[in-house]
Design goal:
The protein is mainly α. It is 74% helix and 1% strand. The chain has one domain: Orthogonal Bundle (Farnesyl Diphosphate Synthase). It contains 16 helices and two strands. Helix 3 packs across helix 8, helix 3 packs antiparallel against helix 16 and helix 9 runs parallel beside helix 16. It is globular.
C-alpha cells in the first residue's frame, strides 16, 4: 500500500462537515411528497444512515477545484437520492429482509409501494439537478442511471452462474463504481475542471468505487451479522459470485467447485455450510487475493490525482482509499 498523508477520519469529515449537514437538509426536503407513503419511506431510509461517502466525494472534488457555490449542496443531495433509490430497488429484486440492521423498506411497505417510491426518488433527483441549468450535468446523470439499470438487469441474468472475472468487474462498475465516478466528475464540472482534470477525477472515483465494492463483498463473506446488519454471505444466498469466489473457482477441483455451485443453485446454505465454502476460499487464499485487488484499485485512485495542486482537499482524497480498504463494515 502506498504511503499516504497522515489524517484522521475526523479531520477529513471536518473539511466537509457543514456542507454534509446542508446536504442532509436538502436530502430531507427533497424526499418529502404530498403522498404520505413516499415521505414515510424517504424518512425511514434517511434514518438508516450510511457513510454519505458519495456526496463527500463530490464536495471534495468541487473544493479541490476551488468551487464554493450552492450547486455542490444540490448535487450532493442528488447523488445520495439516486443511491437511495438504487438501494430500494436492490432490496426488492434481492428479496432482502434487512438493510443496515433494520427491516428493509420493502418488508415494511411492500414491493409495490417501494418500486414506485424508488421511481419517484429517481425523478426527484433529476428535478433537483435541473436547478443547476446545466445540460452537461443532466447528460452525466442520465448516463449514470442507464448504466446502473443495465447493471442490475445484467446481474439478474447472471444469478446462479459462475461468471468470469471480467463480467464481474463490469457488473461492479455499473452497480457501484459508476456512482463514485460520477460524484467526482460532477464536482469537477461544477469547479470548471479541464477535460484532463475531469477525466482524472472520474478515474479516481471509478477506482475508489471498485475498491469499495470488492471490500464490501469480502466483508459479506467474513464479517458477522451484527456488524453487517444483514445475514452473512448474502451474495451467495442470492446467487451472486464475487471476486474471492471467482478467484477460488479459477483454481479449485471439481469437487470444490460443486460445493460453491450447490449454494448458488439452492440459494441457501442447505446441503453445504458457510464454513465449507470458506474452507475452499481459505485453501486458495481467495479472501487475501480479493483484498490485494482492492488495494491495487486504491493505489490507482491515489495515483491519478497526483498532479493536482497540493491542498487539504487533495490530502483528504489521498487518504480516503486507505479508509475504504481497511474498514470493517
Amino acid at each position: 500500500m502506498s504511503a499516504t498523508p497522515t489524517l484522521t477520519a475526523k479531520e477529513v469529515f471536518d473539511l466537509v462537515r457543514d456542507d454534509l449537514l446542508a446536504i442532509e437538509a436538502e436530502f430531507e426536503r427533497g424526499t418529502v411528497s404530498d403522498v404520505r407513503a413516499i415521505t414515510d419511506i424517504g424518512a425511514y431510509l434517511r434514518a438508516g444512515g450510511g457513510k454519505r461517502i458519495r456526496p463527500a466525494l463530490l464536495l471534495l472534488a468541487a473544493k479541490l477545484m476551488s468551487y464554493e457555490g450552492r450547486g455542490a449542496i444540490r448535487l450532493g443531495a442528488v447523488v445520495e437520492i439516486v443511491h437511495t433509490a438504487t438501494l430500494v430497488h436492490d432490496d426488492i429484486i434481492d428479496e432482502a429482509q434487512t438493510r443496515r440492521g433494520r427491516p428493509s423498506a420493502n418488508v415494511t411497505w411492500g414491493n409495490a409501494r417501494c418500486v414506485l417510491a424508488g421511481d419517484w426518488l429517481y425523478m426527484q433527483a433529476f428535478k433537483i439537478a435541473l436547478e443547476e441549468r446545466n445540460l452537461r450535468i443532466l447528460d452525466v446523470l442520465i448516463d449514470l442511471t442507464q448504466q446502473m439499470v443495465e447493471g442490475e438487469l445484467l446481474q439478474i441474468e447472471k444469478l446462479g452462474l459462475c461468471i468470469g472475472l471480467q463480467e464481474h468487474l463490469d457488473l461492479i462498475f455499473r452497480k457501484t463504481a459508476c456512482l463514485f465516478s460520477t460524484s467526482m466528475r460532477l464536482g469537477g464540472i461544477l469547479g470548471g475542471a479541464t477535460l484532463e482534470q475531469e477525466q482524472a477525477l472520474q478515474d479516481y472515483g471509478r477506482n475508489l468505487g471498485m475498491a469499495f465494492q470488492i471490500v464490501d463483498d469480502v466483508l459479506d463473506l467474513t464479517a458477522s451479522e451484527e456488524v453487517l446488519g444483514k445475514p452473512v454471505a448474502s451474495d451467495l444466498r442470492e446467487g451472486k459470485v464475487t471476486l474471492a469466489v471467482i478467484h477460488a473457482l479459477e483454481r479449485c477441483t471439481q469437487d470444490e467447485r460443486k460445493v460453491i455451485e450447490t449454494v448458488l443453485e439452492e440459494r441457501a446454505f442447505l446441503s453445504v455450510s458457510h464454513q465449507e465454502v470458506m474452507a475452499v476460499l481459505d485453501h486458495y487464499g481467495s479472501i487475501e487475493a480479493a483484498g490485494r485487488s482492492a488495494e491495487q484499485y486504491a493505489d490507482h485512485a491515489r495515483h491519478v490525482i497526483r498532479n493536482f495542486p497540493e491542498s487539504e482537499f487533495k490530502r483528504a482524497l489521498l487518504w480516503i482509499p486507505d479508509f475504504v480498504v481497511v474498514r470493517d463494515k
